[in-house]
Fold this sequence. Notes:
By secondary structure, the chain is mostly helical. It has helices spanning 7-18, 23-43, 62-74, 90-100, 112-133, 136-139, 143-158, and strands at residues 78-80, 86-88.
Amino acid sequence: MAEVGGLRMWILHVIGEFGPSNGVEIMANVQKHYDLQVQWQRKGTHIHPHHEGSAQSKRLLPGSVYPMLKKMVSEGLITKQDDGKYDLTEDGKIIVTNLFEHFQQRNEHMDQGVLSVKNSLEAMNWHASYLEELDKEEIAPHEESIELLIERLKKVKESLK
């Protein structure tokens, strides 16, 4: 699931969306969201032909979810409650807000264009932070996609002149 933002981000997202959840619920909701993303990618026209095979749905296993939940508890992103459900800590809530705010409904009285641009840039900044933390071996196979994104952003910048 690293290709689509990492398991940690998916866990934060589903707890933020559905509230306190046990491990089984988290696993099921992450899988549903991931499967929807894969379906969307398959239907979309934005998949690079070189990466088309990477859109295949992968099964989430307890052996990856539960160690990540334990790690996230130790990092202070989530807490395990007495009833066995996991919930976001204040730090986890801040991350969810910063990363996923642009997907949530907006106040209709705000300027949608400015808010959308601002949130898109903030989301790209957070995603860049995530990519910066990856090992070279994890990111190297995606060099072509990174280069394409850089070129697209350069075109956006040039259009401002």
